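Regression check, iron/sulfur cluster case 343:
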Amino acid sequence: MIHRTIPAVQGPDLSLQSCWQEQLRSVITCPQHLLQILGLNATDLGYSEEALGAFALRVTPAFVARMEHGNPRDPLLMQVLPHQNEMRQQDSAQWQMDPLAESHYRAAEGLIHKYRGRVLLIAAPQCAINCRYCFRRHFPYEENAPSRKEWQQSFNYIREDSSIEEVILSGGDPLVLSDRQLEWLIEEIENIEHVKRLRIHSRLPIVLPARLSERFNRRLSMSRLQSILVIHANHPNEIDEEVCCALRASRDAGITLLNQSVLLRGINDNCDIFTMLSNKLFECGVLPYYLHLLDKVKGASHFQVEKSEALTLYNKLRAQLPGYLVPQLVEEIPGADSKTVIA
Ligand code: SF4
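Current build output:
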């Protein structure tokens, strides 16, 4: 059992964390403010106003606190700073607004039914952080923001298809919802008899760990549904003691914790980085789950790592780690029945 082998750590007392919603309201959206905190100058960084206009800057102070002061190549900074490379012309042909063709799988407002047995609800129209490589950076959230009444169409859709055993809350980030909104959604899903599992995809446990509150953990541990929280960390520097402490509390509440990463040029395209990441995740009670090749979303081509390079990195990783700490290397091919496992 994972949790018996991990010693207790000294960490911040989560009960003393300021309200997570207050922290969410303090999200940094001004590039000058961000660069001032880090002691950096926009002209040295390839920062682009045009890229900012195409996709806003959003980053939590907690995530910024883990960036290295004065380092223009900081791997966390590079994930969030609008960059001139995003406007490169060669993006236009191969790199698309909807790289996974999700619009084809829209079964109701805010509901995507792509794979057998599970559906995905776009539970929230925004995130606490805007990752520059995000495959939903152009997603039409305004067309997928149902009211409570409109959500009933999605619940009816799930109710009428008894093959659906798992509901995935995604977004945007579902954990930016208030506790009341989230609890309402969970209850509606619990009321659908044939649904067995609730999966939550969220980057908040990394960028705003206070969100994993006692109330959140308690609600999931009380649920009749099996709960799986899939977090998203790309680099070991994203995990500090506060993150680790929050994750362990969720794990101790009986929530299964998995991580997915995206392979990103200049950020984590290095075997040692993934070795450190997997080890850190496991110390926090999280199993590495997927390592994704970058989805070909317009504006993100400069992050691409070629498949052959990814395979070389992956084979090295397999030689360095026990099998349970090696995530599956996958890519998402529009129209396929599931994610395509590369290795
Ligand atoms: S959906 Fe995930 S990857 Fe995309 S911007 Fe939000 S947190 Fe980042």
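Comparison notes: DSSP finds 13 helices and ten strands in the chain. The domain at 102-341 is CATH 3.20.20.70 (TIM Barrel). No diff flagged against the previous build.
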